[in-house]
Amino acid sequence: MTARHTILVIDDDPAMRDSLAFLLDVNGFAVTTYETATEFLHHLDDGAIDCIVSDIRMPGMSGLELVRRLKADAVKSPVILMTGHGDVALAVEAMKAGAVDFIEKPFDDEALLRAIREALQGQSAKPADDTAKREAETRLAELSPRERDVLRGLVAGKINKVIAHDLGISPRTVEVYRANLMVKTDVRSMSELMRLAIAAGL
């Protein structure tokens, strides 16, 4: 029998903690939950951590601050952030700081499980930075100049309306460009697109 991966869940909502603990347990993971990032940091040395799933907005230390703290302390565990719709800019900033992924609430169970599995695989098969950059640039090579402009706006955490204003186009046109970006780069989620853009240095 193989050892179960240990997943830490940090969320100040008790119902969300219980729900995620149950979901991860029935899918074969060992789970520990914490109400705040500060509480988790007090127990950081208690054992091996394979992946951390944290809300981004919490009392005290935020998910973004947690990612920066873990990086400063050289903690290698991948961090996935759960984010509300208005927190995408924060989540992108956290990915730049070292988070491996973010998922927008409300999300379906499979989206979270897929993000965790990809984070665990990524730890064992991480390409060198220059290789990842080349691969990302190749996947972005087919984008038109205007599609790149929209992508830069998304990486900056701007909403469609702001990107539209900046580029002098309608919000509906931005939506069309966003859809084109997903198809051309062959990604399944906004977080995957952001990861690609960040790897390419956009």
UniProtKB/TrEMBL annotation:
Pfam family, any one:
Response_reg
From the UniProt annotation, give the residues forming the signal peptide. Answer: none
Organism taxonomic ancestry? Bacteria, Pseudomonadati, Pseudomonadota, Alphaproteobacteria, Hyphomicrobiales
Report the residue ranges that make up the HTH luxR-type domain in this protein.
136-201
Q: Which residues form a coiled coil?
A: none
Q: What organism does this protein naturally occur in? A: Bradyrhizobium jicamae
Name of this chain's protein = Response regulator
Domain Response regulatory intervals? 6-120
- Alphabetical keyword list: DNA-binding, Phosphoprotein, Transcription, Transcription regulation
